[in-house]
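Hey team,

Sharing the BTB domain-containing protein run so nobody has to redo it. Sequence (554 residues) first:
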Amino acid sequence: MSIVGEKTFKGKTSELLINLNRLREANVLCDVTFKVDGQKISCHKAILAAYSKHFENKFTSGTQEYLGEEIELTGFTATTFLTILQFVYNQTITISNSNVLQIYEACEQMQINPVKDFCEEFINEELQVGNCLRFRFFALRYQNRTLTAKCENFILNNFQLVTNENEFKELSVDDAQGLLAMKKQQDPQPAELFFGIILDWVKYNPEKRAQFFERLLQMVDITNLPTKYLNDFTKRAEKWVMKTDVYVQTVVPELLNRLSNPTKNVKTEDNLKFMVVGDEDQKSKSVTVYNVKSKTWKNMKSTKYHRYGASTVKIKSRVYTAGGRKSKNVETFDLENIEDDWQLVLPMKQNRWRAASAVINDKMYTVGGWDEGTLATAEVYDPGLDKWELFASLITQRAHHALVSWQGCLYAFGGNSHGGGELNSLETYDPRNGKWKSLANMKEKRDGLCGVALNHSLYAIGAWFDESGGNGLSSVERYDLRMNKWTDSCNLKMSRSAACACVVDGKIYVVGRYNSRGEKKASKSVECFDPKGDEWLLETDMEAARVYATVVAL
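Structure output:
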């Protein structure tokens, strides 16, 4: 009989197996004895080998420790081993919340896959607010991508309840930030919700966690917090909060500014925009902003330098654009003072044309590009220090590629490699270990693609490829970050190469294009993709055609 938190799974049994189990329990005709957790357990080699590739290899390869009369097994308890043996002989196993992880671990070690599948099914059915984080970390540990995805979907769909649990509050800062970033990317939440979650996490152990308050609050746009919320927060602020730089330098000044300017509007979703910078025309320094709600364009202050094949990011309230043809110059624009000119900051260490940039923890990572040849080198810019530093070079030199960030890691894909032609490779960089790692290749080679990250997926959009006769591609591929697999996505309305893309309000916007290497006909058009509708739609036209521009969500 099954009870809450317990389920019995049955396979196909037989009279033969039933009789063999009777003999095993009576220790008759057994030819192997295991010592597990101090307890001796006898059974039949042939039966174990038939169910476990691990035991088959051990029994047939002459492994030294398997030649004696008694074989010691470690890594699990005798109770766990006997529970699994009951399935091997009787095709019946009872799995519960108290034993599921131990059984899975043992079956992973012994390579008994049917029982692992039962454990996974049990976890899927038993996912709850109080255990989903524990099951997710378990799935990550064993690289079970399917189970990880199901746990993460449950967490994201029950995010507020999950973050109220002590299990969330006991997470490390990296794990807490990772889940917050995942939720922010999947479904942007009100600023006060994230602020409250972060505050509760720090307050769980303020002596050790106050140092992380500013780091986590980088995920919250303070200007989106309601004035009453800010006012109430400052009135209730504890001593450890008032000692933090973010409280003194950001929260209090923002509130004072609001109180002294009562008519100042807090930013709303009605102001969702993206900025387009530069163009192939080297006379062009133009900058324009598109409002996705009002569907209107607004020209902004021009950059100081030509931005042809540059890369652009947003960090807090500032936009940074870097590089271009024979350029290593970098300049920044203050979104809170739009009448001010662009300002130069420290240049990169080398020229980078058709490089790509992304942001992690309020730092600008710029990789690859072209400088008298394709580059593998990479640099990172810290706006607080106005300083560029080199970091680990790409595995494959590449230019005209895509670079995105997701959950604290970089993903570089596509482009071209000098002498090596167009690329379909994907590699990822984790700042925590300072290394790049290769992942699954795209189906198509894509030079001049654009790419974004959205809902646990990377999108490789358009490009051109010489084997297609130099024509632009309208195809799109989607990479599942949890499954390490590329699949075809919905095609663009028209072929696009040398375009640029960003995500605003959960939708992908692709700006400009070339149609082919030969004809090189530029376009004014902008396409939009909503994953919920699974269709690309023509969104609008720009005032002028653009290629090799760069775009950033504001």
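The chain has three domains: 6-126, 173-260, 269-553.

Ping me if you want the raw files.
A.
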